[in-house]
């Protein structure tokens, strides 16, 4: 693990947290465009990419605690999907987190009687079986959904698949705990206590985390902006990188220049 540091004076670190069953290579060259605003640092979650699994991890709180040592004081976090849930939990645990960018993130992944914005449990269970039985094929199919709406979806998908193969497959124990988190974690009660400036980005055609989940998330956080990317699916930073970059650059520039909370906006 890279030792934590404050980085350059006045220049904050933005730690990027990837989604389920993937690794930090998923961001590709896109994150280099953030360099004028922050020091981007993509890390692997435990059991993914080049990061070994820690058998002490059993839930979302444990997963967030395991990566906390890689988060410098005063850092910002960018989390995608499961990584967004980890980012929320880190902000719950640590009041020094300066800001959050949550892409295709939900406080509760599965639907229940009072949360209609999640996926049906049977859908997640089927995905879990696919991951356990044939990880590569299931993830390849999963990636194909991520490029929906891209200008050149075939090229984007090829790049994604090359990225996936560039590092080892995830540890099976990490996958099992990740699926357990998706099935059981519920952050709704904690949201009002997360005071970090937040940008919530949704894909308006997301079939995995419905845009309504992002809308509810932004409404429940005390200092959140909501931005939807028209035509994007679950990974708008891949299918619509310019649109996401523009929204993110505006948010990061505000945090860097003013150190004030962005005005609450929904739309």
What would you give as the CATH superfamily? Alpha/Beta hydrolase fold, catalytic domain
Please summarize the sheet with the most strands. 7 strands, parallel
Reading off the top of the CATH hierarchy, the class is best stated as Alpha Beta
**What structural class do you assign from the helix and strand content?**
alpha/beta
CATH third-level topology: Rossmann fold
End-to-end gap: 38 Å
Per CATH, the architecture is 3-Layer(aba) Sandwich
Rough shape? Answer: globular
- If helices are DSSP runs of H or I spanning 4 or more residues, what is the number of helices? 9
Radius of gyration: 17 Å
Beta fraction: 5-15%
Total domain units: 1
Uncertain residue ranges? 1-9, 260-267
Short description:
The chain is of the alpha/beta class. Helices cover about 40% and strands about 15% of the residues.
Structure description:
This protein is an alpha/beta fold. It has one domain: Alpha/Beta hydrolase fold, catalytic domain (Rossmann fold). The protein has nine helices and seven strands. The chain has a seven-stranded parallel sheet, with helices on both faces. Helix 2 links the parallel strand 3 and strand 4. The longest helix has 18 residues. It is globular, with a radius of gyration of 17 Å.
């Amino acid at each position: 693990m890279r030792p934590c540091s404050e980085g350059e004076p006045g220049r904050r670190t933005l730690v990027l947290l990837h989604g389920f069953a993937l690794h930090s290579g998923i961001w590709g060259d896109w994150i280099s465009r953030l360099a004028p605003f922050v020091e981007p640092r993509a890390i692997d979650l435990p059991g993914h990419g080049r990061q070994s699994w820690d058998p002490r991890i059993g839930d979302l709180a444990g997963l967030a605690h395991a990566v906390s040592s890689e988060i410098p004081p005063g850092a910002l976090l960018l989390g995608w999907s499961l990584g967004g849930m980890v980012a929320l939990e880190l902000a719950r645990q640590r009041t020094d987190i300066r800001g959050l960018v949550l892409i295709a993130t939900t406080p509760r992944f599965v639907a229940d009687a009072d949360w209609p914005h999640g996926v049906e449990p049977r859908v997640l269970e089927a995905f879990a079986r696919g991951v356990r039985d044939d990880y590569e094929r299931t993830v390849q199919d999963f990636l194909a959904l991520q490029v929906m709406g891209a200008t050149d979806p075939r090229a984007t998908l090829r790049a994604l698949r090359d990225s996936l193969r560039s590092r080892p497959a995830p540890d099976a124990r990490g996958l099992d705990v990740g699926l357990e988190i998706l099935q059981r974690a519920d952050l709704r009660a904690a949201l009002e206590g997360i005071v970090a400036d937040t940008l919530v980005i949704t894909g308006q055609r997301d079939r995995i985390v419905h845009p309504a989940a992002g809308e509810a998330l932004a409404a429940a956080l005390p200092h959140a902006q909501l931005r939807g990317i028209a035509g994007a699916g679950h990974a708008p930073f891949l299918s619509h990188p310019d649109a996401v970059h523009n929204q993110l650059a505006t948010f990061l520039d505000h945090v860097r220049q003013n150190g004030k909370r962005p005005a609450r906006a929904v739309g």
